[in-house]
Amino acid sequence: EAAVTQSPRNKVAVTGGKVTLSCNQTNNHNNMYWYRQDTGHGLRLIHYSYGAGSTEKGDIPDGYKASRPSQENFSLILELATPSQTSVYFCASGEGDSQNTLYFGAGTRLSVL
Amino acid sequence: GDSVTQTEGQVALSEEDFLTIHCNYSASGYPALFWYVQYPGEGPQFLFRASRDKEKGSSRGFEATYDKGTTSFHLRKASVQESDSAVYYCALGDYYNQGKLIFGQGTKLSIKP
Q: For residues A86 and A39, which has the higher predicted lDDT (pLDDT)?
């Protein structure tokens, strides 16, 4: 069954440290997305990609970078983690057509101390 | 920019009650509208979509009708069950950037047996 897999599922990081969140999809979808989920804000888009080698800024990109080395993999990178980046992060894939249906992973809970 | 507003942050009901979760949107163009559901410890799952005015989307007993006049897409279910306890997200597809979804703040539904 097609799936979106995130790793790690939980992460504790120190302020100023580098954090990499990984995502792998077997849906063969062109588009991939990183969202963060916070109470009162719902899901907010950080970065997305149209395919291997492409990354685009979403609505809240500051403090984050993204990398799409292949169709299947999409990483979110926090070069200098801050406590305000404590959140639950979700990766999703989609065909990128007018149907807009996204398929989400189970999430990564990140705590920055 | 485009936005989605869910009026209720939390809803508490008893089994067999009628459910309404309100969703209003603001968008340029003619976006598709979505409902996603998120169970504890999981990522959001696609529930259903509607793409044009007066179109009704439905799944698992839930339904919503796209109303361009009132810019609404309210979620309804006639008789809720304890298993419906989850967080529900209304979302709209970015008309100019196919594949992007803009989410509302989410509504936590709790059902007492």
A: A86
The sign of the CA dihedral A104, A76, A42, B72 is negative
Q: For the residues A90-112, what does the mean pLDDT come to?
A: 88
DSSP codes joined into one string, chain B: --EEEES-SEEEEETT--EEE-EEEE-SS---EEEEEE-TTS--EEEEEE-STTPEEEETTEEEE-BTTTTB--EEESS--GGG-EEEEEEEE-TTSTT-EEE---EEEEEE-
Q: Cβ(B107)–Cβ(B21) under 8 Å?
A: yes
Exposure b/e, B2-15, CB count within 10 A at least 16 = b:
bebebeeeebebee
- pLDDT < 70 stretches in chain B: 95-98
Q: What is the pLDDT of residue A40?
A: 83
Question: Measured on CA atoms in the order A88, A58, B45, B48, is the torsion positive or negative?
Answer: positive
Return the residue in B4, B5, B66, B101 with the most chain A beta carbons within 10 A, the one to mutate for interface testing.
B101
Instruction: Provide CB contacts within 8 A for B14, sequence distance 6+.
Output: B111, B112
Q: Nearest CA to CA, how far is A14 from chain B (Å)?
A: 24
Instruction: Inform me whether the pLDDT recorded for A2 exceeds 60.
Output: no
3-class secondary structure, A33: strand
Q: What is the pLDDT of residue B96?
A: 63
